[in-house]
Amino acid sequence: MKMPKFSSLLRGFSLQRDFDELKEALLRYIKEETVGPFKSIGRYLAFGALGSIFVGFGAVLLLLGVLRYLQWQFRFLDGSESWIPYAAIVLAALLGLAVTIKRIKAAGGKPRRGSK
To answer: Exposed (0-12), middle (13-18) or buried (19+): which is 71, by Cβ within 10 Å?
Structure first.
């Protein structure tokens, strides 16, 4: 029985093609493991920033509404006592800010319930 030549067994195989396949596999892996997570992090941060803007805007409007209500309800605070509703709103805003900061610090790095 005649044995085929060694070079005929390796026909169709080339070192350059192996390197190209390796390079393509590495690029696919890098894109899959880095670009994909960065896109999802970007989406998460965008929604978080947008939500923060809306909540902040809503808080400002709520405080302004309470101020106008206090000014309307307590008409005897006109004149030299007109600063009292403003002081009450500033105190309410500072209290809300303090509670928010306390809740953020209390959470630390703990994951929320229901998140993986």
So the answer is: middle
